[in-house]
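look at this stuff:

>
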Amino acid sequence: MVSTKTEWGEEQNIPWDEYFDLRFKEAIKTTKKFIQKLGAEQVYEILDELSYSEGVKDGKAVVMNKKSLTSLSDFSKVFKEAFLNDPLFKTALDVEIIEDSQRSFRLKVKKCLWAYTFNENEAADIGYHMICNGDYGIAEGISPNLKLVRPQTLMRRKTFCDFQYTWEDS
């Protein structure tokens, strides 16, 4: 359950899936209208730019007030601290760390409330560009040395999201 306040200051508890549906339904509807008018390629390009730049900001916020990251091991520690303990992420994602070495940090996301919401609203492509693409920006915001490869996502109706992080020294 997520606790929200109405515009009149009243507390309201609703299930997370309903909250996500309410939060994204109008954005999906509006984006579908833009696609009708402007074409998918142009709208997806705009969504990619927005989600990436917001991801960079979010990534920088994650490492603000932390010592400089110099390795994949540093990132692994920050990831576990910042994401695995976050109440939203603990609720919205089912994440399994499948590799945590000096060369590779891999995650398997088996459930994702964002993917569920966009797929249920027949908007997987919109969700990919609006939500998933931001993950690449988050990686860059955390460190320009952090590289993300993600060959598949739940948003694209695969069985899991495959996050593969590596560290490239500059």
Q: What stands out?
A: Residues 39-167 form a domain with the Muramoyl-pentapeptide Carboxypeptidase; domain 2 fold (CATH 3.30.1380.20). The chain has seven helices and six strands.
